[in-house]
Write a structure and sequence with these properties.
By secondary structure, the chain is an alpha+beta fold. It has 6 helices and 3 strands; from the N terminus they run βββαααααα. The chain has a 3-stranded antiparallel beta sheet with strand order 1-2-3. Helix 1 packs antiparallel against helix 6. It is globular.
Length: 156
């Protein structure tokens, strides 16, 4: 992997060599923030939806650990500033207003540049949601939130 940073336009180019092809993503600081907001925000939404089940801390921890285990260019972006995601919302609806569009935008920008990384991102979010709920029986609220997150990913 090579990484270069251009101060004039705040763009980072991430080049990844895959087994069968070379892939280059050019992501601005805003693009990276969108990816992080989308991924970590999805876990936050599921955590909020799971609060009624009594173990939101476990949901958040397991989902975040899954995001920290991602590979590829998406993994590098998520690992850069994992705690830097700021969700401005006093309720779940306000957080969803940020996160669901970020999921769609993340998929759109990755599909434009590298469909394989778009697939990696979608899989990353899906696995994080599965990891977040593997220790508990998903409630109807959690199932509905998972459906909304999946719909936002597929809307791109």
């Amino acid at each position: 992997m090579t990484s270069s940073n251009t101060a004039s336009n705040n763009t980072t180019s991430i080049s990844m060599e895959h087994t069968t092809m070379n892939s280059t993503l050019t992501l601005t600081a805003q693009d990276k923030a969108t990816l992080r907001t989308a991924a970590y925000g999805a876990v936050s939404l599921l955590t909020a939806a799971g609060a009624a089940g009594g173990k939101p801390h476990r949901i958040a921890t397991d989902g975040s650990i899954a995001l920290a285990s991602v590979t590829g260019a998406v993994g590098h972006v998520l690992a850069e500033k994992p705690g830097a995601v700021k969700l401005d919302g006093k309720n779940v609806a306000a957080i969803a207003d940020q996160v669901l569009p970020a999921l769609t935008e993340a998929m759109s920008l990755l599909k434009r540049q590298d469909p394989a990384e778009a697939d990696n991102f979608r899989s990353t979010v899906a696995v994080a949601l599965q990891a977040a709920t593997h220790r508990c029986e998903p409630t109807p609220t959690m199932a509905d939130m998972t459906r909304k997150i999946t719909s936002a990913l597929d809307a791109a």
